[in-house]
Write a structure and sequence with these properties.
alpha/beta; five-stranded parallel β-sheet; two-stranded antiparallel sheet
Amino acid sequence: MTALTASFADRTVLRVGYGALQLERLHDRRDEAVQLLRHAVELGVDHVDTAEFYGFGFVNAVIREALRPEDGVLVVTKVGADPNPGGRLPLRLAQRPEQLRASVEDNLRSLGVDRLPVVNLRRLDTGPGLRPEGDQVVGLDDQLAVMTALRDEGKIGAI
């Protein structure tokens, strides 16, 4: 069983979690989305990946409704992009420190929590997809400084 688990944010979790992005497909069927996530937890899912930009906040709202503290599910959020309703792409880059702080605050609000257990920083300088340009080209040290400050303020657990 140990091969199926990993240490993550001072917890032991299954190596495979639930990527909540797929819940946005049920945007017009919120009750089904909640039921689906509840069923995943009943089947043993112990950590969920989400972001405020998934479904323009819809996914976080489903997580807020579906998950209970006694479920013990680790919610892992990400920052580095924001929702972009009506845009050519459904998200826009948010790499600047003040944008990262605002994204953390948005996730706190939409998930209805005072602290995000884990926040992943989505940097866009490698891999396929969008590339930062202009003021969105930000050094990792500047990004980590704001993330560390948020952790020190108690708003983030692990980065």
